[in-house]
Amino acid sequence: MSVTSGLNALSSTSTADLLKQKNGAGKTTTGGESFANHLKGALNEINELQVEKEHAVADLATGKVKDLHQAAMAIGKAEINMKLMLEIRNKALNAYKELGRTQL
Hints:
elongated, 2 domains, mainly alpha
């Protein structure tokens, strides 16, 4: 198969056909569910990091810590991920507010 015939085959396929192939024959979704699942997974991961941080801080306070470097890494990782989540939340809220101000 030549390159031009491959390109012609691609251009003859519509976007709707590609979506049907991707989602199955009669199944149509907008992808909102997968975004929600992805967001829920990210929040669960951040929660787990926060729990690890709490354990590391508790171990530091009680003197049970075996490796100070690992405790500092857990605390730093949780802090960075929390800051990232807050920035994403702020961007999403700003986008929502901007959409509300948009006149149609």
